């Protein structure tokens, strides 16, 4: 993450903190629900900036480990190849793919939690 | 009159709406005194109307709900006219629904089709059900009642002339769903290998077809209303179709609809057994537990696809909604994890 990205992520985190601590306690009902949406959006935007492409690199590394013979493919092409194989039933119950998907899913989940 | 009403689209069409309501209700005159937007419903708009009815069978002050389309809808959502017909059929079958009152398909009134139904008491808000233990009455009884209500819905079976718009039931609802969700993902240009993994599992483990019934397809906590005594209404009939009855049970029990109470397997409000007991007593049929488990996996896939569709509505510029934008970004990753958890390689029946 660059200094500029870190600065933006920090700004979003502070904005979320300010709303959570100063604004939210004064709200009830629908207004409280709406401000919670805003806080979630700030968190999500901050996490995306902080990630700085890390998730993409993880996905590529994991999927390449499933198809080592396709090491020259980029992420998009690799995912397209795997999607076709999955739909054709060529990867049914494939342990290596499953483990890669679990690792990717956990990383994706961490970004939104 | 609320500030909200003075500035909303209903106020602009107040006279036309009053004229329609007067004719439809058989009154001498109807005055629209107030209207406020109700929360909930990303696909439809719901308005609570305060009416003063002069003469006719409903004379006096009335609170009713007007339901119409939001700015942009989901492709699979039924029209308001079809939803109105479904409500009438459900009411006739003894399902606890808000009484459907009047349908208006004349675009000169509001510019779009709408219908009016009786107001149901209570709340449908899941966060309140999670926090307020006495809401909905005794919870095991509520779970059982919901099972019985679902059995009544499933008692509606094809062919039905009043539900002709539902078309012919799919021969294999599970496989039809797999094909539909793959098509949606392709059209959204979303490539999710976790969803593809789940879809392939669903394709290769599809349960045998059973006789089609009317399936609600959104029967879950958040889509029924309760007061302190118990259930007051089953809502949101916009996704109804002919289908596999076990799919509705799977949707209701799916972990994604248990909110803050995942240990309460019947919608976060009660035990699975109480829900099944209500269903079995109401339908006279045994719940196929394995098939329900299958449909719970499908439920997570379906919700992930819907969330992606809702997110796309904001990305495409069709609608500016922070709620929809967050839905498309927050839920799919959480759902993918659950789908993978339920479909580990050891759970596959494969011929190697």
Account of the 3D structure:
The complex is a heterodimer of chains A (113) and B (352). Chain A has 113 residues and is mainly α. Chain A is built from five helices and no strands. Chain A has helices at 3-23, 29-51, 54-66, 75-88, 95-112. Chain A is elongated and about 55 Å long. Helices cover 44% and strands 15% of the residues of chain B. In chain B, helix 8 (173-188) runs parallel beside helix 12 (289-315), helix 10 (245-253) crosses helix 12 (289-315) and helix 12 packs antiparallel against helix 13 (322-342). Chain B has helices at residues 3-6, 9-12, 14-25, 80-92, 107-110, 126-131, 139-154, 173-188, 193-204, 245-253, 272-283, 289-315, 322-342; strands at residues 29-37, 44-54, 60-69, 100-104, 114-118, 213-215, 224-226, 231-234, 241-243. In chain B, the strands form three sheets. Chain B has a five-stranded antiparallel beta sheet, sandwiched between helices. A two-stranded antiparallel ribbon of chain B has the order 6-9. Chain B is built from 13 helices and nine strands. Chain B folds into two domains: 14-118, Phosphorylase Kinase, domain 1 (2-Layer Sandwich), CATH 3.30.200; 126-347, Alpha-Beta Complex (Aminoglycoside 3'-phosphotransferase, Chain: A, domain 2), CATH 3.90.1200.10.
SSE arrangement of chain A, N to C? HHHHH
Taking all Cα atoms into account, the compactness measure Rg of chain B is: 21 Å
**Main β-sheet description of chain B:** 5 strands, antiparallel
- The percent range for helix content of chain A is over 70%
CATH class call of the largest domain in chain B: Alpha Beta
How much of the sequence of chain A is in beta strands? under 5%
- As a percent range, the share of strand residues of chain B is 15-25%
Question: What's the overall average pLDDT of chain B, rounded?
Answer: 93
- Sheet with the most strands of chain A? none
Shape of chain A: elongated
Overall strand count of chain B: 9
Task: Give the N-terminus to C-terminus distance of chain A in angstroms.
Answer: 20 Å
The chain pair with the largest interface is: A-B, 33 and 25 residues
**What global shape of chain B is seen?**
globular
Distance between the termini of chain B: 70 Å
Count of helix runs of chain A: 5
From the structure provided, what is the oligomeric state, counting identical versus distinct chains?
Answer: heterodimer
Number of strands of chain A: 0
Helix content of chain B: 40-55%
């Amino acid at each position: 993450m660059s200094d500029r990205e870190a600065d933006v992520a920090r700004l979003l985190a502070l904005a979320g903190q300010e709303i959570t601590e100063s604004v939210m306690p004064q709200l009830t009902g629908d207004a409280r629900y709406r401000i919670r949406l805003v806080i979630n959006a700030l968190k999500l935007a901050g996490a995306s900036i902080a990630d700085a492409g890390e998730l993409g690199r993880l996905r590529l590394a994991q999927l390449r480990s499933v198809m080592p013979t396709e090491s020259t493919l980029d992420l998009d092409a690799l995912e397209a190849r795997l999607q076709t194989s999955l739909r054709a039933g060529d990867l049914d119950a494939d342990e290596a793919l499953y483990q890669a998907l679990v690792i990717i899913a956990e990383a994706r989940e961490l970004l939104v939690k | 009159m609320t500030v909200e009403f003075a500035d909303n689209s209903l106020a602009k069409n107040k006279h036309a709406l009053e004229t329609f309501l007067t004719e439809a209700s058989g009154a001498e005159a109807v005055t629209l005194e107030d209207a406020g937007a109700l929360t909930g419903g990303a696909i439809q708009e719901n308005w609570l109307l305060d009416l003063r009815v002069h003469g006719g069978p409903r004379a006096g002050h009335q609170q009713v709900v007007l339901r119409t389309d939001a700015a942009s809808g989901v492709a699979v959502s039924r029209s308001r006219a079809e939803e109105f017909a479904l409500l009438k059929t459900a009411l006739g079958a003894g399902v606890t629904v808000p009484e459907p009152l009047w349908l208006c398909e004349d675009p000169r009134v509001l510019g779009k089709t709408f219908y009016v139904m009786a107001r149901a008491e209570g709340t449908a808000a899941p966060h309140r059900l999670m926090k307020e233990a006495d809401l909905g009455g005794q919870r095991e009884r509520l779970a059982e009642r919901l099972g019985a209500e679902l059995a009544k819905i499933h008692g509606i079976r094809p062919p039905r002339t009043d539900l002709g718009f539902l078309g012919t039931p799919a021969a294999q609802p599970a496989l039809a769903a797999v094909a539909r969700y793959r098509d949606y993902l392709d059209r959204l240009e979303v490539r999710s290998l976790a969803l593809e993994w789940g879809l392939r599992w669903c394709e290769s483990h599809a349960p045998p077809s059973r006789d089609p019934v009317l399936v609600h397809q959104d029967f879950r906590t958040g889509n029924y209303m309760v007061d302190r005594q118990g259930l007051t209404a089953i809502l949101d009939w916009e996704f109804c179709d002919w289908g596999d009855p076990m799919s509705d049970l799977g949707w209701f029990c799916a972990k994604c609809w248990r909110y803050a109470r995942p240990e309460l397997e019947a919608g976060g409000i009660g035990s699975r057994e109480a829900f099944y007991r209500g269903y079995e007593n109401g339908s006279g049929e045994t719940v196929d537990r394995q098939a329900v488990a299958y449909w719970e996996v499908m439920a997570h896939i379906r919700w992930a696809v819907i969330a992606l569709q809702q997110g796309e509505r904001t990305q495409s510029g069709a609608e500016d909604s922070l709620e929809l934008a967050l839905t498309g970004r927050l839920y799919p990753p959480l759902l993918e994890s659950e789908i993978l958890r339920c479909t580990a390689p050891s759970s596959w029946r494969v011929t190697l």
